[in-house]
Amino acid sequence: MAKVKSKWVCQNCGYETSGYLGKCPDCSSWGSLVEELSAKEIKPAFLKFDKLSDSTPQLLKDIKLDENIRYKTGIVEFDNVLGGGLVKGSLVLIGGDPGIGKSTLSLQSSGSLAKSGLKTLYATAEESGSQIKMRSERLEVNSDNLYILPETNIEEIKKGIDEISPEVVVIDSIQAVYSGNISSSPGSVSQARECCSILMNIAKNNDITIILISHVTKEGVIAGPKVLEHMVDTVLYFEGDRYKSYRLLRTMKNRFGSANEIGVFNMEDKGLTEVTNPSKLFLSERAENAVPGSVVIASSEGARPILLEIQALVGETSYPSPRRVATGIGYNRVLQILAVLEKRVGLNLSKHDVYVNAAGGINTQEPSADLGIALAVATCARNVTVDPSTVIIGEVGLSGEIRRVSNLEQKINEAKKLGFERVIVPESNLPIKNKPENIEIIGVSRLIEAIGKSISG
């Protein structure tokens, strides 16, 4: 009989110890260590790839690339986030809050892949076959190549894969799947790591594309198996405000494409629909008349330019320590811009609360948003307005200079497409080679100069 031993495993980072600890020494989380039992003779599934171990070294120039190495999902936004489609033999992890639309996206893409002629297996560990059928009828998903397997045991799922030999497999979700070789409960780090290793072996040995669905914790990280992010090829996060209809699919890791892409979807009664013009969506509720503290900026998410509205509210405070609140923008970045406004422009905000918000719920971290944030705060503090037909682009340095930004031509073209007439850009970016027609481009080199040229009237 195999000797059974006990270990304590952190459910956040996978740290293992022989005894209980209240605080994890690795990730500093409290109460996250859970006792798990494991048989001594069990060997992890990820120690060996059968197909890869039999291969011999090859010169890079001699390796032939398959022309059909990517599968188009039929959902353009999904394909763009993946870098052009699902790569054959890859492992894709999609994480997100419960109810955000992960299963909907997976089922819709499975239906599209099956319609294109790819044999697809949808293994569900959280729903029965009849429940999947009900949802597929609502989403209008139906194909002769789409197989449904309600199963929680990874060994049984492996048998189903061997039986029908699909090109694409969806596992919904990895937290609900378990292996009989591990005694811990489903969703634990050991179970998730073992199941992911088995699936990775299947994907790499048989050129099967596997999509894993995973939930996230209240802290916004993938629940339990943070280690899975290091094992898979692509990590996607499905984000969105549950009180609004649009959803964002963001790339966090991608071995086969850009790691900064986003896809925008709209949640409707019959599932997710693509938003081909996200800038128009994010500016749809913007006031028609100029309002102090409202500025339109151009940001980039990967290769896609997006126009956003930055809102600022500045008001006097009776407290000794004024509040600084940033939503959708880096907090420390806002503090730095406020310091530049006080030192280089002479705008005293020491007795004022400052609230800055990226309207629409999207998060932007690009430095080209700096100038728009500074102008939003300055115009609200002085109760003046920025010309509503103007888009602001530029990074603000600590000495008050406006620094060069990237992808400027794409941002200007996006502004022109939505009907804006003026764009304020860094002087160092001029001249622009392919200058669009019928739009005025104004170069500025200092923050105080940008404030003077942007104020309407």
Notable traits:
457 residues; alpha/beta; Rossmann fold; Ribosomal Protein S5, domain 2; nine-stranded mixed beta sheet; seven-stranded mixed beta sheet; globular
How would you describe this structure to a colleague?
The protein is of the alpha/beta class. It has three domains: 41 residues; 208 residues, P-loop containing nucleotide triphosphate hydrolases (Rossmann fold, 3-Layer(aba) Sandwich), CATH 3.40.50.300; 174 residues, Ribosomal Protein S5, domain 2. It has twelve helices and 23 strands. The strands form five sheets. A nine-stranded mixed beta sheet has the order 8-7-9-10-6-11-12-13-14, sandwiched between helices. It has a seven-stranded mixed beta sheet with strand order 17-18-16-15-19-22-23. β1 and β2 form a beta hairpin. α9 crosses α10 and α10 packs across α12. About 3% of the residues have low confidence.
Topology (SSEs and partners):
Blueprint: E1 4-10, E2 16-17, E3 33-39, H1 50-53, E4 70-71, H2 76-82, E5 86-87, E6 91-96, H3 102-115, E7 120-124, H4 129-138, E8 146-150, H5 154-164, E9 168-172, H6 189-206, E10 209-215, H7 228-231, E11 234-239, E12 246-254, E13 262-268, E14 271-274, H8 278-282, E15 294-301, E16 304-316, E17 324-327, H9 331-345, E18 352-358, H10 370-382, E19 390-392, E20 395-396, E21 402-403, H11 408-417, E22 422-426, E23 440-444, H12 447-454
Parallel strand pairs: 6-10, 6-11, 7-8, 7-9, 9-10, 15-19, 17-18, 19-22, 22-23
Antiparallel strand pairs: 1-2, 1-3, 4-5, 11-12, 12-13, 13-14, 15-16, 16-18, 20-21
Helix pairs in contact: 9-10, 10-12
